[in-house]
Known about the structure:
mainly alpha, Growth Hormone, Chain: A, two-stranded antiparallel ribbon
Amino acid sequence: MVHDPAQLEREKPDRLRVLWLSTLAFTLMFAVWLMFGVLGVPIRKEFGLTDVQLSWLSAVAILNGSLWRLLAGIFADRYGGRLVFTLMLFFTAIPAYLVSRAGSYEELLLYAFLVGFAGNSFSVGIAWNSAWFPKEQQGFALGVFGAGNVGASVTKFIGPALIASIPPAGYLGGLIPGGWRFIPFLYSILLVLMGLVLWFGTPRQDKRPGQGRPLLAMLRPLRYVRVWRFSLYYVVVFGAYVALSSWLPKYYVDVFGLPLHEAALLTALFIFPASLLRPVGGYFSDHLGARRVMYWTFGIILLASGVLMMPEGHIVLYTKEGTKEVMRFTMNVWLFTLLVFLIGVGMGIGKAAVYKHIPTYFPQDVGAVGGLVGMLGALGGFFLPPLFAYTQAWTGLPQTTFFVLFLLTALAFLWMHLTVIKLLQEEAKHLRHEFELKGDRP
């Protein structure tokens, strides 16, 4: 990392171009990655899918957007984020186009898996921006880049309107497809254009902190338990975010009976804070400490999901006068949306806090460590939608979605808190076995 103030000042325009163009590209890639959250509703209708089949359609896209994050981060460190990101944009355009031409559920599964490659762009952008920004600015910079998660709401805004306005037969004899198929067709064109903008708009002389380093040396930090603990945190704040971004439109439609366009807009109220507050989380992490921000994050998510997991109903008391109903609880759409919004706030600030840890502990290995954390976090987004579907099918209660989230968050919170206690005890070894301190007063 460069520490010369004069050189830092000279490189400022280049740093900002990398940050803003990579954020724009990541926003588009994220929109492509999670487009099945909205497209799934008309796809379910056209192909006659069950909820479990639909959940796997989103899950396979999330899976492929997770598997290659470790390698993508390493490649960005070795060959430069400019080259790797541009190639990813061009490659993803191909399966995006194929999605618009799928004729069966099996084809959709294959193309959804391939187009999910877009999700791996996150590790590239994290490594790329970490290489360009000094340590004291990394939390904010990575937060700004990570705000590209707002791409999850792009399809939710433009999707229902375009699906309704484009004739199912499309235009030019079907050359331009219509209905829900127009969305992936449009994205395939935008991906190519974004690849050209990124290649010609960012500095040719790129940063390559991993250039010349052996692969095993770049993987060595992965042996630390700390890296795997960070990964669990990221499952909560990112994996669950990805899963809920895909799951909530269907939840609103099925549980509250809303039309798709309203369900998509209300889901955006979760996506916006979970994405746009990431720079705020980065700022707080820079100035207050990432660990303190993680306590806030887990507290908010536990509180909100604890209420959301409560099933609707009441308690029946048997009295001498007969039965009496007490503690009646009904979740309306506005309370539900408020609580989901709070979860989005927690996830938004928490995502930046998790990644603030990485350049602090592993300044020379952001690509590898950030790639692994991103990979395992995103894999949570793969496993959670089917888990939501299976637990709902098993219990018959849609609220089990948030019971799963509550348990996952509680596990991460407990691990973090026990680690903090252990670190504090190591710093004050003479107090390790003291429960009653001298001078205590009742």
